[in-house]
């Protein structure tokens, strides 16, 4: 069986499924791979071992190990074929007896080849490799049936492992499309999905505040920022109380409130702590360093005392960042790279310069406010964002459109498909009959393509 026949056969036996699958994270994937049932098809099990044997023929190793349960039968066949002995790590920790978690005889200092069914992030296979290493074995090579991540090879090589995959999702979709098993649209959906997963993979984030935000995203399974633009405290806290469980960050325009007093800040901090969200005052600073320094720390609002993040215009040059953040700890900004309003003057050249500026100050620039009308436009912007910084998108609504004053809305699906790390939603939630329910909808839309 050659690889093309093998992929087609995997589809025929139901190991590769296409449609709409809700993953553990709640994200909806256009494909699903389940190789467990392959054991019911002896010719497929044998073909897997044969193809793997061809793939690893030049690699020196002493033992073969399959990761239980799915890869273990394949590894057994391969061990038989190559006349190598098998070892494996039991899936469940043994709490009695010898406490030895590696099953099978081995000598320390020897090389072990790891076999798994598929890799997505590479993390679980690296964890297994670590256990073998702790037991005194060398693991350098990992062979899998499917590499379904776009950059799995790179990821593993950064950690000192070589990945050998029978096929990746590019080959998989090519073969299935050519044989008429999927159409071109489905193929594109699958490739897009995989790419988005890769974009969302944890990176080295620019500063401690960004990392905290990412942690909350993971815990709350939400990428929703609520923009709470109401003019009195009663409405403010009423809406906040209903929506707080669904948001990861609250965006304020504190100067909109007509009844602001210091109790507002105390209450706000209390909610942020109780419901675990961060605070972001959308102040859009835009003056010389000396002035913004005073605006940020002083006046009646004393923003620097309670807001984790603020928005900043790069137009005055990078002195604005020094003025704002010099001497402050645990505070960061989002630079305005592209506004959502119609006719705004931020052209591609301006956006590029803002990203260049932000790249130089990862400690105080957690990301950028950006906007696009389609997933592709957003994706193009997202791809330019420096590593470790985020893309936040306002002008997002379930239904695309405009308001009467030049605000432009892109559909939430486009924003999320384009790879926005956070979506900022205001009136569609705050003016809803039931803000709680609306926030819940945005929350689940916002993580539609996450893989956690
Ligand atoms: P809306 O009600 O979802 O339209 O509220 C959007 C919020 O985001 C509002 O507070 C704006 O001030 C803010 N915003 C924006 O809409 N577009 C931008 O480019 C920037 C901020 Br920057």
Question: How would you explain this protein's 3D organization?
Answer:
The protein is an alpha/beta fold and 452 residues long. It contains 17 helices and 19 strands. It has 2 domains: 3-200, Rossmann fold (3-Layer(aba) Sandwich); 208-446, Aldolase class I (TIM Barrel). The strands form 4 sheets. It has an 8-stranded parallel barrel with strand order 9-10-11-12-13-14-15-19, surrounded by 5 helices. The longest helix is centred in the middle third of the chain and has 17 residues, at 184-200. Residues 227, 229, 253, 282, 311, 336, 339-341, 369, 371, 394-395, 407, 424-428 line the site of 5-bromo-uridine-5'-monophosphate (5BU).
The gist of it:
The protein has two domains: 3-200, 3-Layer(aba) Sandwich (Rossmann fold); 208-446, TIM Barrel (Alpha-Beta Barrel). It is built from 17 helices and 19 strands.
């Amino acid at each position: 069986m050659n690889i093309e026949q093998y992929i087609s056969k995997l589809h025929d036996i139901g190991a590769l499924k296409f449609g709409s699958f809700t993953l553990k994270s709640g994200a909806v994937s256009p494909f699903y791979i389940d190789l467990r049932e392959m054991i019911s098809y002896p010719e497929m099990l044998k073909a897997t071992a044969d193809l793997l044997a061809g793939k690893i023929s030049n690699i020196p190793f002493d033992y073969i190990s399959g990761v239980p349960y799915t890869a273990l039968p394949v590894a057994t066949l391969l061990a038989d074929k190559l006349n190598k002995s098998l070892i494996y790590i039991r899936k469940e920790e043994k709490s009695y007896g010898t406490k030895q978690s590696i099953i099978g005889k081995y000598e320390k200092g020897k090389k072990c080849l790891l076999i798994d069914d598929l890799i997505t992030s590479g993390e679980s296979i690296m964890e297994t490799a670590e256990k073998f290493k702790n037991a005194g074995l060398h693991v350098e090579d990992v062979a899998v049936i499917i590499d379904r991540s776009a950059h799995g090879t790179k990821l593993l090589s950064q950690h000192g492992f070589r990945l050998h995959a029978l096929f990746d999702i590019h080959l998989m979709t090519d073969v299935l499309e050519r044989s008429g098993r999927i159409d071109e649209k489905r193929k594109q959906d699958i490739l897009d999905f995989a790419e988005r997963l890769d974009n969302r993979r944890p990176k080295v984030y620019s500063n401690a505040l960004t990392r905290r935000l990412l942690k909350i995203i993971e815990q709350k399974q939400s990428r929703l920022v609520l923009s709470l633009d109401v003019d009195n405290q009663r409405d403010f806290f009423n809406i906040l109380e209903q929506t707080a469980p669904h948001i990861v960050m609250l965006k304020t325009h504190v100067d909109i409130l007509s009844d602001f007093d210091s109790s507002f800040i105390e209450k706000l901090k209390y909610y942020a702590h109780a419901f675990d969200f961060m605070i972001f005052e959308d102040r859009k600073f835009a003056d010389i360093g000396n002035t913004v320094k005073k605006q940020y720390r002083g006046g009646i609002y004393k923003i620097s005392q309670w807001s984790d993040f603020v928005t900043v215009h790069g137009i005055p040059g990078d002195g604005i960042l020094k003025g704002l953040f010099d001497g402050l700890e645990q505070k960061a900004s989002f630079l305005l790279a592209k506004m959502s309003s119609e006719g705004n003057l931020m052209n591609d050249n301006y956006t590029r310069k803002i990203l260049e500026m932000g790249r130089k100050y990862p400690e105080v620039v957690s990301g950028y406010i950006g906007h696009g009308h389609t997933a592709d436009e957003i994706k193009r912007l997202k791809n330019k964002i420096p590593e470790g910084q985020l893309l936040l998108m306002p002008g997002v609504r379930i239904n695309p459109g405009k308001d009467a004053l030049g605000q432009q809305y892109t559909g939430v699906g486009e924003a999320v498909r384009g790879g926005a790390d956070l979506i900022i939603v205001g009136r569609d939630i705050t003016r809803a009959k039931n803000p709680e329910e609306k926030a819940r909808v945005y929350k689940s839309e916002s993580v539609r393509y996450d893989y956690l």
